[in-house]
Amino acid sequence: MAAAEPRKRVGFGSRPAVLMIDNYAGVFSEPGIPFLEAVKTNRSAMGDDANIAAAHIARLLEHSRAAGIPVIHVTGMHGNNMPGWHDMVHAGDRRGELSAEKPGAADKYAIVPLCAPVEGEVVLQKSAPSAFWGTPLPGLLNYLGVDTLIVGGESVSGCVRASVIEAASYRYRVIIAEECAYDRHQACRAINLFDMHQKYSDVLPLDEVVEWVDKYGAQKVAA
């Protein structure tokens, strides 16, 4: 029996954009606090893995901006702006019901400083796991002429996965910067990264992504 052919890479295209998903304050805790401790005071917390990933994201953003690659940020939306979602999906779970009027709620979906947008970068709010569902993202990517999405954020098993699958369905080349994608469960993160690498995207080390980004930027300058 002949051996199966090795998986072929999706590969980078020629018109990239960076898509950052849900790097918002509600999942972060103080540095050095492990996951099992962090969730005692914040059920949405991801522990120190979020802080580690944010530092990697900051590096990716720095290089992408220097290369002139558009950066798009997507964050969540308060429950009072998306009626029905928590009743249908999180019935009986009150954690998702934060309205903008409750103490501390106003900052829940604020993007943390290390990952924060700079002037001119688009920030979209979504009301479902996918960054595409019900948002202007498809039109924006079409306007920019994008063919490749470099993705990071959280959670790998939830909103990142939903966005990656939909991006691939739209026929975008999807590159996940491995160190920039995080989850509250290590097993879920590993399994979903493996699965997305097999089916929908390339999951690449951040060093490799940054190397490509830098070359892309240099080629733009030379042109």
Fold topology:
Blueprint: E1 16-21, H1 35-38, H2 48-66, E2 71-75, H3 85-89, E3 122-125, H4 137-144, E4 148-154, H5 156-169, E5 173-182, H6 186-199, E6 202-204, H7 206-222
Parallel strand pairs: 1-2, 1-4, 2-3, 4-5, 5-6
Helix pairs in contact: 2-7, 5-6
Tell me the Rg in angstroms: 18 Å
Percent strand equals: 15-25%
- N-to-C SSE string, H for helix and E for strand: EHHEHEHEHEHEH
Number of helices: 7
| Overall CATH architecture | 3-Layer(aba) Sandwich
CATH class type: Alpha Beta
Mean pLDDT: 90
Could you say which structural class the secondary elements and strand pairing correspond to?
alpha/beta
Tally of extended strands? 6
**In terms of per-residue confidence, which ranges show pLDDT below 50 for 5 or more consecutive residues?**
96-103
For the record, give the distance between the C-alpha atoms at the N and C termini, rounded to a whole number. Answer: 49 Å
Q: Give the strand order of the largest sheet, numbering strands 1, 2, ... along the chain.
A: 3-2-1-4-5-6
Sheet of most strands: 6 strands, parallel
Output the CATH homologous superfamily: Isochorismatase-like
Number of domains: 1
Protein name: Isochorismatase family protein
Keywords: Hydrolase
Pfam families: Isochorismatase (PF00857)
GO molecular function: hydrolase activity
